[in-house]
């Protein structure tokens, strides 16, 4: 079978393509105007979120910061690297317990890359609910040392949100006289993170990794208009981040302040 036809057929049979076709079939079979409207709206949103072209456009506004030039790190004026936690891989049987998720590992790898290029110390921030220990930050520090041979200078392990990452990292950075950090996170997450760190007075230079939207040499082709699970996941991430930005602007400031951050032991 021709590769193009194979790609199209697979996209239309496998989820989410196959599910979208079932919803469209239901539109023609269901009786009643309201039922048809609901199916049509649901199928349309599902389809749009599943298209790579749409997911890419949703990510454009979330990834304004370009990648750092590896040979120009000294010009940033940073005196430390701060890596934000990106989740855990719980009950990993191949590792005999919890370890870092893909998001955390991507950020760790880039943080290690920046460290080797700049010689700057690495700090990590990321907590976990009380019932799930060790924290994401501690797991990341373990992987950083065991897999990359780099010891974290400090670990903040109580924060559960991006806002708390900022608030609770302040004491750790002030303890070591760190005035400006390269802030490592996914490219789409950094705008909200930079705002959160600025609110508590931490000078943070965006150090984005794991870009979703980037220029592709092949340009746009038919594959950008075929539904895919990866595109749906990216659309979900983008919408979640947009809602997170709105929520951070509307919600009251956290009760945890820089003064309470000083009570958290980091090391």
Low-confidence stretches: 254-267
Counted by DSSP, the helix tally is 10
Instruction: Write down the oligomeric state.
Output: single chain
Mean pLDDT: 88
And the CATH topology of the largest domain? Rossmann fold
Structural class: alpha/beta
What is the level 1 CATH name of the largest domain? Alpha Beta
Tertiary shape: elongated
**End-to-end C-alpha gap:** 58 Å
* Count of distinct structural domains: 2
Descriptive notes:
The chain is of the alpha/beta class. The chain has two domains: 3-60 and 225-241, no CATH class; 70-211 and 256-261, Rossmann fold, CATH 3.40.50. The protein has ten helices and seven strands. The protein has helices at residues 3-13, 17-29, 33-50, 52-60, 102-118, 136-148, 162-175, 190-199, 229-250, 258-261; strands at residues 80-84, 88-92, 97-100, 122-125, 154-156, 180-186, 203-209. The strands form two sheets. A five-stranded parallel β-sheet has the order 5-4-1-6-7, sandwiched between helices. It has a two-stranded antiparallel sheet with strand order 2-3. Strand 2 and strand 3 (97-100) form a beta hairpin. Helix 1 (3-13) crosses helix 2 (17-29) and helix 7 (162-175) crosses helix 8. It is elongated. 36% of the residues are buried. The model is unreliable at 254-267 (pLDDT under 50).
Keywords:
five-stranded parallel β-sheet; two-stranded antiparallel ribbon; 10 helices; about 270 residues; alpha/beta; Rossmann fold; 2 domains; about 15% strand
């Amino acid at each position: 079978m021709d590769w193009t036809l194979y790609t199209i057929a697979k996209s239309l049979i496998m989820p989410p393509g196959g599910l979208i076709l079932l919803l469209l079939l239901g539109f023609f079979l269901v009786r009643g105007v309201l039922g048809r409207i609901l199916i049509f709206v649901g199928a349309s949103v599902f389809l749009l979120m599943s298209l790579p072209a749409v997911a890419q456009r949703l990510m454009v506004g979330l990834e304004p910061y370009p990648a750092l030039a590896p040979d120009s790190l000294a010009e940033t004026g940073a005196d430390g690297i701060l890596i934000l936690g990106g989740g855990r891989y719980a009950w990993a049987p191949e590792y005999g317990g919890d370890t870092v998720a893909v998001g955390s590992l991507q950020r760790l790898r880039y943080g290690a890359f920046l460290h080797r290029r700049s010689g700057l110390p690495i700090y990590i921030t990321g907590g976990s609910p009380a019932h799930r220990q060790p924290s994401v930050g501690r797991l990341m520090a373990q992987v950083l040392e065991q897999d990359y041979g780099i010891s974290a200078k400090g670990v903040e392990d109580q924060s559960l949100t991006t806002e708390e990452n900022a608030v609770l990292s302040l004491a750790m950075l002030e303890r070591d006289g760190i005035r400006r950090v390269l802030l490592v996170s996914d490219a789409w997450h950094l705008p909200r993170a930079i705002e959160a760190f600025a609110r508590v007075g931490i000078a943070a230079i965006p150090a984005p990794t794991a870009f979703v939207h980037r220029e592709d040499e092949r340009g746009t082709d038919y594959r950008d208009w075929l539904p895919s699970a990866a595109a749906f996941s990216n659309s979900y991430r983008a919408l979640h981040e947009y809602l997170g930005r709105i929520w951070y602007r509307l919600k009251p400031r956290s009760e945890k302040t820089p003064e309470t951050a000083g009570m958290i032991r980091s090391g």
